[in-house]
């Protein structure tokens, strides 16, 4: 395995995405580069890039991290129990962008590589990641564009990957205690190495490279649409679902906290303004209700329904 090639790609991807979002927002991201001190449980380095109170992004961050540790945490071995307790190396880019305008969806993307290093055995390497879209006011053409871009990125690696990763995303980004999806999905994969290292890494690059073409056209279509307090209030309410998922179910958050990662970087994904209400439901026939009836359910977006 060529970890230097993976690291170089991920750092370049992070900077391309940050440069593009800085240009769209008009406000520079702050950069927090870090290195683990000798003697800490995790060793490694990374770079957190974050913007708050921008014209486009109320809060957004894009992280790179590359760490090594003495023991894989439980969140990383739940599907590979034979590797429990093995030393590991992990690197990845993870981002969440929370726009100010409720007509612009929140988006999440990450791409990552894990290597378990069991004593006396060859390294076990796998890839994971994906991207998903969380609208507050759903638009059919946005959902279709996002899914089509994901499908096109995966097509060179096999006809079955998009349907498989789309279904995996629908299943993964689901709030079981609420009985509802987090958003309109996208693609998600984990523990992936079936194409061999080189082709699996190529697939990872295709997913990472697809992020800007998937998201920026949606931003440009929606960023100048009018909104008021009603829409901001609903946005804050729906952001509560985002927080619930990330703190209860998200494997990346759990991995970071269980392995002793940097709390500020891990919780960068949290939105700045959130609301909860007791047993609230939108009034039938409203745009808010349409999110639930038309968008928060698994659909074949490539077929338009």
Features:
305 residues, alpha+beta, oxygen-dependent coproporphyrinogen oxidase, 7-stranded antiparallel sheet, two-stranded antiparallel sheet, 9 helices, 9 strands, 25% strand
What is the strand and helix layout of this fold?
Layout (H helix, E strand, L loop, with lengths): L2 H23 L4 E6 L7 E10 L4 E13 L4 H4 L10 E12 L6 E11 L7 E11 L5 H15 L6 H12 L1 E2 L4 E2 L3 E8 L3 H27 L6 H20 L2 H8 L4 H4 L20 H9 L10
Antiparallel strand pairs: 1-2, 2-3, 3-4, 4-5, 5-6, 6-9, 7-8
Helix pairs in contact: 1-5, 3-4, 3-5
Description:
The longest helix has 27 residues, at 196-222. The radius of gyration is 19 Å and the shape is globular. It has a single domain (3-295), classed as Coproporphyrinogen III oxidase, aerobic (oxygen-dependent coproporphyrinogen oxidase, 3-Layer(aba) Sandwich). Helix 1 (3-25) runs parallel beside helix 5 (196-222), helix 3 (140-154) packs across helix 4 (161-172) and helix 3 runs antiparallel to helix 5. It has 305 residues and is of the alpha+beta class. The mean pLDDT is 91. It has a seven-stranded antiparallel β-sheet with strand order 1-2-3-4-5-6-9. Strands 7-8 form a two-stranded antiparallel sheet. The chain is built from nine helices and nine strands.
